[in-house]
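Entry 14. Structure prediction run on the chain below.
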Amino acid sequence: MTASADAIADRSFAYGDPCLRNLGRVVSEPESQAKNRLERKNISVLSVGTIGFSMEPFLKNMEPMERARYYVLNKVSSGYTEALEIFSDPENVNTPVAQYFLGMIYYHGLGVPKDAEKAFRFMSISYEGKNLNASYYLGMMYLKGFGTKKIPNKAMMHLKEAANTVGDSRAELQVGLMYLRGEGLLAPDEEKAFKWVEKAALHSNVEAKFILGQMYRTGCGCDVEMASAFRHLESAAKKGHKGAQILLGNMYLKGEGVRSNKAMAEHWYNVADGKESLT
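Output returned:
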Protein backbone atom coordinates (compact mmCIF):
# COMPACT_ATOMS: atom_id res chain seq x y z
CA MET A 1 0.00 0.00 0.00
CA THR A 2 1.40 3.38 -0.99
CA ALA A 3 2.05 5.95 1.70
CA SER A 4 0.38 9.34 1.34
CA ALA A 5 1.55 12.77 2.44
CA ASP A 6 -1.49 13.20 4.69
CA ALA A 7 -1.08 9.79 6.28
CA ILE A 8 2.55 10.49 7.15
CA ALA A 9 1.90 14.07 8.24
CA ASP A 10 -0.76 12.83 10.66
CA ARG A 11 2.05 11.13 12.59
CA SER A 12 4.20 14.27 12.67
CA PHE A 13 4.47 17.26 14.94
CA ALA A 14 5.48 20.79 14.04
CA TYR A 15 7.16 23.89 15.39
CA GLY A 16 4.80 26.66 16.36
CA ASP A 17 6.94 29.26 14.62
CA PRO A 18 4.65 31.79 12.87
CA CYS A 19 6.30 31.63 9.46
CA LEU A 20 6.62 27.82 9.49
CA ARG A 21 3.22 26.95 10.93
CA ASN A 22 1.41 25.50 7.90
CA LEU A 23 4.06 23.23 6.47
CA GLY A 24 2.81 19.79 7.55
CA ARG A 25 6.22 18.44 8.47
CA VAL A 26 8.05 16.20 10.90
CA VAL A 27 10.61 17.95 13.08
CA SER A 28 13.39 15.99 14.72
CA GLU A 29 15.17 17.14 17.84
CA PRO A 30 18.40 18.83 16.76
CA GLU A 31 20.35 17.17 19.58
CA SER A 32 19.53 13.73 18.21
CA GLN A 33 21.87 14.37 15.32
CA ALA A 34 25.35 12.88 15.08
CA LYS A 35 27.78 14.65 17.37
CA ASN A 36 29.30 17.88 16.16
CA ARG A 37 32.40 17.52 14.00
CA LEU A 38 34.43 19.50 16.55
CA GLU A 39 33.85 16.86 19.19
CA ARG A 40 35.22 14.23 16.81
CA LYS A 41 38.35 16.03 15.67
CA ASN A 42 40.76 13.90 17.70
CA ILE A 43 39.11 10.56 16.92
CA SER A 44 40.21 8.58 13.89
CA VAL A 45 39.19 4.92 14.09
CA LEU A 46 38.36 2.61 11.20
CA SER A 47 35.13 0.64 11.43
CA VAL A 48 35.12 -3.07 12.16
CA GLY A 49 33.68 -3.71 8.71
CA THR A 50 36.52 -1.83 7.07
CA ILE A 51 39.44 -3.40 8.93
CA GLY A 52 37.90 -6.87 9.27
CA PHE A 53 38.78 -7.67 12.86
CA SER A 54 37.66 -6.96 16.40
CA MET A 55 38.05 -3.40 17.67
CA GLU A 56 38.88 -4.63 21.18
CA PRO A 57 42.70 -4.85 20.74
CA PHE A 58 42.73 -1.46 19.05
CA LEU A 59 40.72 0.17 21.84
CA LYS A 60 42.86 -1.41 24.55
CA ASN A 61 45.95 0.18 23.01
CA MET A 62 44.39 3.63 23.28
CA GLU A 63 45.18 5.90 26.20
CA PRO A 64 42.32 5.60 28.76
CA MET A 65 41.04 9.16 28.24
CA GLU A 66 41.07 8.75 24.47
CA ARG A 67 39.24 5.43 24.74
CA ALA A 68 36.63 7.00 27.02
CA ARG A 69 36.15 9.86 24.55
CA TYR A 70 35.69 7.33 21.76
CA TYR A 71 32.99 5.47 23.70
CA VAL A 72 30.99 8.64 24.37
CA LEU A 73 31.37 10.33 20.98
CA ASN A 74 30.58 7.15 19.04
CA LYS A 75 27.75 6.07 21.34
CA VAL A 76 29.35 2.74 22.24
CA SER A 77 26.94 1.79 25.01
CA SER A 78 29.05 -1.15 26.13
CA GLY A 79 31.81 1.31 27.04
CA TYR A 80 29.75 3.88 28.98
CA THR A 81 30.54 2.38 32.39
CA GLU A 82 34.27 2.35 31.68
CA ALA A 83 34.10 5.90 30.31
CA LEU A 84 32.40 7.12 33.48
CA GLU A 85 35.06 5.44 35.61
CA ILE A 86 37.90 6.93 33.55
CA PHE A 87 36.52 10.47 33.57
CA SER A 88 35.72 10.21 37.29
CA ASP A 89 39.21 8.96 38.18
CA PRO A 90 40.93 11.35 40.65
CA GLU A 91 43.73 11.87 38.14
CA ASN A 92 41.28 13.06 35.47
CA VAL A 93 38.18 14.51 37.13
CA ASN A 94 39.71 17.93 37.73
CA THR A 95 40.57 18.50 34.06
CA PRO A 96 38.22 20.55 31.85
CA VAL A 97 38.07 17.73 29.28
CA ALA A 98 36.94 15.09 31.79
CA GLN A 99 34.46 17.53 33.33
CA TYR A 100 33.05 18.26 29.87
CA PHE A 101 32.52 14.58 29.08
CA LEU A 102 31.02 13.92 32.51
CA GLY A 103 28.60 16.76 31.76
CA MET A 104 27.72 15.08 28.46
CA ILE A 105 27.20 11.72 30.16
CA TYR A 106 24.77 13.14 32.69
CA TYR A 107 23.09 15.47 30.16
CA HIS A 108 22.31 12.67 27.71
CA GLY A 109 21.99 9.86 30.28
CA LEU A 110 24.72 7.70 28.77
CA GLY A 111 24.72 4.54 30.86
CA VAL A 112 23.30 6.46 33.82
CA PRO A 113 19.99 8.24 34.48
CA LYS A 114 19.94 11.81 33.22
CA ASP A 115 21.00 14.14 36.02
CA ALA A 116 20.40 17.80 35.28
CA GLU A 117 22.20 19.12 38.35
CA LYS A 118 25.35 17.08 37.73
CA ALA A 119 25.30 17.94 34.01
CA PHE A 120 25.09 21.65 34.75
CA ARG A 121 27.73 21.49 37.48
CA PHE A 122 30.30 19.64 35.37
CA MET A 123 29.70 21.79 32.29
CA SER A 124 29.99 24.97 34.36
CA ILE A 125 33.29 23.85 35.90
CA SER A 126 34.62 22.81 32.49
CA TYR A 127 33.64 26.20 31.05
CA GLU A 128 35.37 27.98 33.95
CA GLY A 129 38.45 25.95 32.99
CA LYS A 130 38.40 27.69 29.57
CA ASN A 131 36.76 24.82 27.65
CA LEU A 132 34.58 26.76 25.23
CA ASN A 133 33.03 23.54 23.88
CA ALA A 134 30.95 23.60 27.07
CA SER A 135 29.26 26.78 25.85
CA TYR A 136 26.79 24.88 23.68
CA TYR A 137 25.57 22.68 26.52
CA LEU A 138 25.36 25.58 28.97
CA GLY A 139 23.34 27.49 26.39
CA MET A 140 20.94 24.58 25.96
CA MET A 141 20.56 24.14 29.72
CA TYR A 142 19.78 27.82 30.24
CA LEU A 143 17.36 27.63 27.31
CA LYS A 144 15.52 24.58 28.67
CA GLY A 145 15.89 25.24 32.39
CA PHE A 146 17.79 21.96 32.70
CA GLY A 147 19.78 21.89 35.96
CA THR A 148 19.39 25.65 36.33
CA LYS A 149 16.81 28.37 35.94
CA LYS A 150 15.54 29.06 32.44
CA ILE A 151 17.35 32.26 31.42
CA PRO A 152 17.00 32.95 27.67
CA ASN A 153 19.49 35.82 27.54
CA LYS A 154 22.20 33.63 29.11
CA ALA A 155 21.25 30.87 26.70
CA MET A 156 21.72 33.25 23.77
CA MET A 157 25.06 34.45 25.13
CA HIS A 158 26.49 30.93 25.49
CA LEU A 159 25.09 29.68 22.20
CA LYS A 160 26.52 32.64 20.29
CA GLU A 161 29.85 32.04 21.99
CA ALA A 162 29.82 28.39 20.92
CA ALA A 163 28.88 29.41 17.39
CA ASN A 164 31.43 32.20 17.05
CA THR A 165 34.42 30.70 18.86
CA VAL A 166 34.31 26.98 18.04
CA GLY A 167 32.00 27.03 15.03
CA ASP A 168 29.43 24.70 16.59
CA SER A 169 26.67 24.28 13.99
CA ARG A 170 24.21 23.08 16.64
CA ALA A 171 24.67 26.40 18.43
CA GLU A 172 24.23 28.33 15.18
CA LEU A 173 20.94 26.55 14.58
CA GLN A 174 19.68 27.17 18.10
CA VAL A 175 20.50 30.89 17.87
CA GLY A 176 18.51 30.98 14.65
CA LEU A 177 15.56 29.24 16.28
CA MET A 178 15.67 31.65 19.23
CA TYR A 179 15.45 34.59 16.82
CA LEU A 180 12.66 32.82 14.95
CA ARG A 181 10.61 32.25 18.09
CA GLY A 182 11.55 35.49 19.82
CA GLU A 183 12.91 33.67 22.87
CA GLY A 184 14.53 36.15 25.24
CA LEU A 185 13.81 38.95 22.75
CA LEU A 186 11.16 41.63 22.47
CA ALA A 187 9.94 40.11 19.22
CA PRO A 188 10.94 37.49 16.66
CA ASP A 189 13.44 38.56 14.01
CA GLU A 190 13.01 36.45 10.89
CA GLU A 191 15.92 37.98 8.96
CA LYS A 192 18.42 37.26 11.75
CA ALA A 193 16.89 33.82 12.14
CA PHE A 194 17.47 33.13 8.45
CA LYS A 195 21.12 34.21 8.62
CA TRP A 196 21.91 31.94 11.58
CA VAL A 197 20.04 28.94 10.18
CA GLU A 198 21.77 29.43 6.84
CA LYS A 199 25.15 29.50 8.59
CA ALA A 200 24.39 26.19 10.32
CA ALA A 201 23.20 24.66 7.05
CA LEU A 202 26.42 25.69 5.31
CA HIS A 203 28.23 23.82 8.10
CA SER A 204 26.36 20.66 7.06
CA ASN A 205 23.83 20.62 9.91
CA VAL A 206 21.02 18.41 8.58
CA GLU A 207 18.29 19.90 10.77
CA ALA A 208 19.33 23.38 9.65
CA LYS A 209 19.08 22.34 6.00
CA PHE A 210 15.55 21.10 6.69
CA ILE A 211 14.50 24.35 8.35
CA LEU A 212 16.29 26.53 5.78
CA GLY A 213 14.44 24.71 3.03
CA GLN A 214 11.15 25.58 4.71
CA MET A 215 12.21 29.21 5.13
CA TYR A 216 12.98 29.50 1.41
CA ARG A 217 9.70 27.73 0.61
CA THR A 218 7.60 30.15 2.69
CA GLY A 219 9.65 33.35 2.40
CA CYS A 220 10.50 33.43 6.09
CA GLY A 221 13.30 35.99 6.52
CA CYS A 222 14.06 35.80 2.79
CA ASP A 223 12.42 35.89 -0.63
CA VAL A 224 10.52 32.79 -1.69
CA GLU A 225 12.95 30.64 -3.70
CA MET A 226 11.49 27.26 -4.55
CA ALA A 227 14.65 26.00 -6.25
CA SER A 228 16.69 26.78 -3.14
CA ALA A 229 14.01 25.21 -0.94
CA PHE A 230 14.12 22.06 -3.02
CA ARG A 231 17.93 21.90 -2.93
CA HIS A 232 18.18 22.14 0.85
CA LEU A 233 15.28 19.77 1.51
CA GLU A 234 16.72 17.25 -0.92
CA SER A 235 20.07 17.42 0.85
CA ALA A 236 18.44 16.81 4.25
CA ALA A 237 16.20 14.07 2.83
CA LYS A 238 19.19 12.19 1.44
CA LYS A 239 20.75 12.31 4.91
CA GLY A 240 17.71 10.49 6.31
CA HIS A 241 15.63 13.41 7.67
CA LYS A 242 12.03 12.15 7.55
CA GLY A 243 10.44 15.58 7.65
CA ALA A 244 12.50 16.65 4.65
CA GLN A 245 11.56 13.44 2.85
CA ILE A 246 7.87 14.25 3.29
CA LEU A 247 8.27 17.84 2.10
CA LEU A 248 10.37 16.70 -0.83
CA GLY A 249 7.53 14.38 -1.80
CA ASN A 250 5.13 17.31 -1.57
CA MET A 251 7.34 19.42 -3.82
CA TYR A 252 7.61 16.66 -6.42
CA LEU A 253 3.84 16.20 -6.28
CA LYS A 254 3.09 19.91 -6.71
CA GLY A 255 6.00 20.75 -9.01
CA GLU A 256 7.54 23.24 -6.58
CA GLY A 257 11.16 23.99 -7.49
CA VAL A 258 11.24 20.88 -9.66
CA ARG A 259 9.21 19.37 -12.49
CA SER A 260 6.13 17.55 -11.16
CA ASN A 261 6.86 13.84 -10.81
CA LYS A 262 4.28 11.64 -9.04
CA ALA A 263 6.57 8.62 -9.09
CA MET A 264 9.29 10.53 -7.25
CA ALA A 265 6.72 11.95 -4.82
CA GLU A 266 5.54 8.43 -4.05
CA HIS A 267 9.15 7.29 -3.65
CA TRP A 268 9.94 9.92 -1.03
CA TYR A 269 6.70 9.32 0.87
CA ASN A 270 7.57 5.63 0.99
CA VAL A 271 11.14 6.36 2.10
CA ALA A 272 9.78 8.51 4.94
CA ASP A 273 7.37 5.72 5.87
CA GLY A 274 10.16 3.11 5.86
CA LYS A 275 8.73 1.21 2.90
CA GLU A 276 11.59 2.01 0.51
CA SER A 277 15.30 2.62 1.04
CA LEU A 278 17.23 5.75 0.16
CA THR A 279 19.27 3.88 -2.46
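The first helix runs from residue 5 to 9.
Filed with the rest of this week's runs.
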